[in-house]
Structures are given as structure tokens and as C-alpha cells.
# Entry
Amino acid sequence: MDAPALAHPGPILTWERQPAALLARHERGLTRIDAVAPDILRVRFSPGSALQPPRAWGSLPDLPATELGLSGDDEALHLFVERLAARLDRTSGALTFATPGGSEFARDLAPPGWREVAIEETALAQGPDAELPPGAARTGVFLRKRLAPDEGCFGLGQRPGRLDRRHRRFTNWTVDISSPGHCRGEENMYQAHPVLLAVRPRLAWGLFLHSTWYSTFDVGAGDSDVLTLFTLGGELDYYLFAGPTPAAVVEQLTRVTGRPALPPLWALGYHQSRWGYASDAEVRAVARTFRERDIPLDAIHLDIDYMDGFRVFTWHPQRFAAPAETVAALHAEGIRAVAIVDPGVKKDLTSGYPVADAGLRGGHFVRGPDGEPFSGWVWPGESLFPDFCRADTRRWWGEQQAALLDAGVDGIWCDMNEPAIVDRPIGTEGERARPIPLAARQGEAGEALHVETHNLYGTLMARAAAEGLARRRPQRRPWVLTRAGYTGVQRWAASWMGDNRSSWEDLETSLPQLASMGLAGSAHVGVDIGGFYGDCFAELFARWIEVGTFYPFMRNHTQCGSRPQEPWAFGPQVEALARAAIRLRYRLLPYLYTLAHLAHRRGEPLLRPLLYDFPDAAHLHPIEDQLMVGPQLMIAPVYRPGVRRRLVELPPATWYDLRTGARLAKRDALIAEAPPGALPIFVRGGAILTLGNVRRSTMEPLTELTIEAYPDPQAPGEWTLIEDAGEGLDYQHGGLAETHLAIASLRDGAALSIAARSGAYQPPPRRLILRLHLPEAPAGLRLDGRTSDAWRWRAAERAAEIALADDGAAHRIEVIP
Ligand code: MIG
# Structure
């Protein structure tokens, strides 16, 4: 296909310096570069004479600008912030970036180009609904950047498929990929994350295309050394992150798009769900069975079955006749209730359904191109769709949650918010996806067309849910789970990856999928453990739950009508393995919760690819079936039938086997024994792992804290345990407990120091167990300078152990060689 030629900006005619920005006018169009931070530049280019004004619903947090250094010569304008330099060519308008040391990257192969793009050229060709009114933006802007031959390309969010995104093409347009009419693709998904992380030895950089419009990334698919960005938005707008490590890029990205919300502690526990827990009695029976079988559980999710005729914000009058009692019964067992909410509001105007009535009266629904409320078909039948671009609509929606919150519901699960809509009653023959028309109007007073705001629909619904929770329960932390989203959704919600299948492939793909979500800024993510579509089976379930232990969000969920998938559904052997996996999750909670704080403070993903922690080991970067869980743990899951051992690459570090406590001999790789129930888990030398006692749920107090030190003979190690009440907002005002821990490797042994606890949060009384992992039993142990006779050698764990009451004071144990 011969695409029409692109228009280009031509030479820069005039330029002006603003306090933290450069504004350059070309023969055609203008470039604006903002110094966002010492390590972040924002680049905008418009083919017109002005940039689009910021959108009211644009949801990036405000950042203070930084100083921009600027100089010019005959050929170029040179821009500097502390850790990033850019060169804007005066003749062509092309940009190049460089480190302060002069290493070039992200070079434009040509200046931005544009042309009129017909909708049919995009994946948006959806029949007549795709038509935009005359005059609506259809200018497509293109940008081609050079990819270095040794640059690995990562990110782009939840798409399954390979972790390394190079040689593929991606569309950023939120769709319900599980609905008829869409096939299960790797190219486009429920969530849109136009985020790229490029990694080469000693230099990582990142790019966030700040366009909520339909956009595409060609990551070396056409020409392997070219990255082509395209947006239908009529203007180019991207943030460039200086790195220089992958961790720095993720920090920079989430500084711009927002950090992941800190979840309440219970959200990190085990969640049980299924489409089809259809009555109060059934829900109580599930809860009771968990308790009878002594399997920890923190939350049960209520799917659309609880509603009355799928009317959002209602309860079924018979099956859930007394919802407050249902939820209270769960709470009495230490279990939280999460309720699903769909955006489609049944267009029921005759039975006094307040959500439809008040919604119409308040003008809260998306209006079609004709200005009348748009309707389409979803579970409730013909439905209306809230216009979440409007602040007053988000508020109104949040208030509707009273119907759930008054019954005691703890968290909100936002589904179908791509939004998913079909063209006739669900299940009718010939059913096809029927999206909101691109020319539908959203925002206050017809401010924008749906084509611009579509990608934000899921995020803004999650935001409405989270803000509604916060308003109604100002003392508690909102917890929201969402299916659809756009980069930045992490500020309001955790995400699950939608409708996967009960298959080995889907277990395998969850690893790169969740890791890529982390790189796009969403730290709290999971897939349906056991798989959604189809029937799970014993071996697959056993493998999946052992991997799920390490998903930041750990939920078992399945489709209605599939075979039972609760931990006991596959017989006593698998039940025992599942119980052990879930118990391990609860043991790990103090570590995972500290990681949740780090995600909230600096965007750091809980689950991440090896490249995040080992940026200089380029040969490990494409690996996607071994992941890091925080900086201390590495997992090497089994995701194939019949496999009982597997190859594990050992990144450059000292490693311990978590199960034996033994330090591994230095080598590049090993074969790990991995029968079901024994997922290979490795601890990095220098790590200090903090473990809790197993609880039935996080509503029970932590009564024991184990601090396990894994000395690295080559280097000291340190860690700060972060704790708080697990709920509420005190953590924002000093209500934290931070315990600094350090291991020193002494000539003949090691020492573990625990600093006095700082911060205003007082953990409940508990026992402290200190363990030092050593090659062999030492002659003795000194506690706080005195030879102890209360220590013991735990041969099975290869650790010297001592227990004491946790008094919050400083302690030190030291090996007597
Ligand atoms: O059209 O609410 O991805 O988790 O169980 C299906 C029923 C709608 C899709 C979600 C799935 C949920 C299901 N929903």
C-alpha cells in the first residue's frame, strides 16, 4: 500500500525561551519542549499554530517544573536538564537525545510527519459508527525513531506474548478481547499502555506517548531498527525518560503518571471468586469451607449474580435478600467482600430504577453523535453508559455505591469498562461488538468526541469508584480492581488481566504479561488463577496456585458453568499443595507489604523481569519465565505438564535456595528439582527476608516476625521493613513503623543488626525470630554483645536462630566462629 506522503514542519523560523520550556515555530507547526524534571523532558509537536489545551479529565498529577538549559548555534538548539540533553535540528525539526556523557539515544530519523488518515486505515473501522463528523481531528501524526541494534524493547503493558516487544506492532485502544467479534490477540488488549522501555548495556530510557487517542507503536516490526509512533490525535505529545536503569525509568514514568495506590493489607491476601456464587447461602458455604479446611482467605468476590436483573447497584431480592447480613457473616470469618460493578446501566425507565432515572435527569450518560443518550446491549439488556469524563458524573456514580457500601462491601471490582458493548441481547445469534460511536460526545458541554476519551473510560470509572469509596469512608483506603485502563490507572486501582483460559499457555503467558504491567507502572496486578474459560484440572491448578503465590494480586476466579475451582476442588493432594501455597503467601506478607509501600513511594513493581534488577546482564533480559519478586526473591515457575525439574539461569549475584536455606555454589545456571508444590525460589545473597506467621486472614494480628538474613560473603546487605496499621491513612502522617536491618559479613561468619524501630505505628506484641543462614553450625552466637545460650542450629534450614520478644529496640546477633 502506498501511503500518501507526510507533511513535515520545515525549518525553525523563530524560537522563544520560557522559564522551563522552549517554544519553536517552524515553517509549518510548532514544537514545545518542557523541562518536566531533571531527568524528564516532555515533547509536543502540533502541525497547527497552537497546542491543544489540557483536558479537564486528563489525569496526570501536577509536577513542579525544573530549570531548562538552552543554547543555540547555526544548526541546532541544545537543551539540557541535569540528566538529559536534547538537540533540536533547526533545519529539519528532528530531535536527538543524549546522556550528560554524550551517549545518544531515541534519535528521530525524521522530524514528526502528518497526513490526513482515513479511519479505514486504522483498526477502528467499525462500520458506520466509526464515522467522525466533518472537521473532527483525523490528522495522524507519525514519528520515527532509531532503535539501536542492541536495544531490547519492553513495556506496553498487559499484552501476552513475549516480554521483549521488538519486531512487533501494537495498538493502543481498549477492547474487550473476550467478546465475540474479537479474537484473543497479543496486539491489543483491555488496557492501553503506550509505554516503551528500551534497554541496552548501561543505558535504559523510556517513552510515554501521552495520547489517549487511538495510537500504534511499531517496535521494529517493519524495519527492525525503527520505532514508529502514530497517533490519531492530531498532535504529538510524549515524555522522554532518561533512565539510565530500568528501575529509574519506571520511577520516572510513575512520577509523571502517578504512583500505585497503597492497598489495604487485606488486598494482598488470598481472594476467592467465581462467576456463579449465586446466593447468600452459596457465599456463606464457600467462606465456611475455607475455615473448615483451614485455608487462609481474605476476600470473596461477588460477580454479577448478586444483582437484580443485572441492574448495577442493586441486590437480588431473593438470592441476596439481606446483603448486610451476608457481608457481616463474611466479616465475622475475617473475610472481606468485593462486589463487581459494570458501567452499563439498564435502560429501565418504567420500574423506578433510580440509577437510570437520576442518571438521565442529571445528564450523566454518554451522548451519541445526535446528542441523545447512547444505548447499547450488555448484561442488563439495553443500557446507558455514564460519562466518566465529567467530574459531576464521577461523583454521582461514586454516590451510587452507597447501595453496596451500606451493606458493608469492602472493595469495588470494575468490569466491562473498555467499555464492552454488543449490538443485540447478549447470547443472540450474530452478536457483534458494538462500541460507543467514535463521534459520541463526552465531557462537559460536548467538549470531546469519544474517539479521544475512549482509552480513558476504564481508568475514569476506576477513579470514580475509588473517589466514591474515599468520600464515603474517609478513614479507610479505597480498594478497586479494574479490567480496562490507560497508563496511570494504578493511582486508583489494581488490575487483573481479564478472561484467560485454563491452559498451560495462559499460565506461562501470565509471567511476561504481569511483568510488562509492572514496567508500565501498574504494580498491583494478577491473572485469574486456574484460568477463567474452560475447566481447570489438577496438575494445572497445582502449578498455577504455586505461581499465584507471587502474583501481586492473588485471586482464583473462573467462568460460570466451569467445573469447581476452589482450592479443594481437585482432591486432597492438590488441596494440600494449594493450602501450602496460600500459607506461603501469608508468610511472605510482611515482605510483600513493604514492597507495596515501595511501589507507592517510587513505582517499583512487586513482580518484575530480571532486567529490572540486573540491567547489566544483557543476556538475561529476554528471559520471561523467571521473575524477581522485589529485589530479594527470584522464582522459576514450572508451566508445562509432567515437568519435574527445570533450568534456572542464575543472574550475577550470590544465591540461596529458599527451601533448603543453602547457599549455592557460584555458577551461571542450574537444574532445579521442581515437583508440584516445590516451585523453585531463590533468595539473593545480602537479602534480609521478613516473614510473618500464617493467619486465617489479615484481620488476625501478626504474632510472630521472622527475620532471615542471607549473608553474601562479598558484600553487606540491608533492608528496611515497612509496617503500618494495614488500613486507614495514618501512614501518610507518620503512622508507620520502619525497621532498618543490616547484615555484615565478617571474616569468619556474619552479623545481623536490627536498628531501633522508628515511626509512630506500634505493632501488636509479637515474638521476634532472628535467623542467620550459614554454611555450617557456628560455635556460638552473641546477642547484643553477650554470648547466648538460647540459640539453636536449625539444620533443615541451615540457620542459627534465636528468639526474643519484639521490644522495638536495637539488637545485634553475631556469629562466634
Ligand atoms: O461478559 O461478570 O472478565 O471476570 O466473571 C462477561 C461476568 C462479564 C467478564 C469478566 C469476568 C466476569 C464476567 N465478566
Notes: The first strand starts at residue 12 and ends at 18. DSSP finds twelve helices and 52 strands in the chain. Residues 167 and 213 are 23 Å apart (CA to CA).
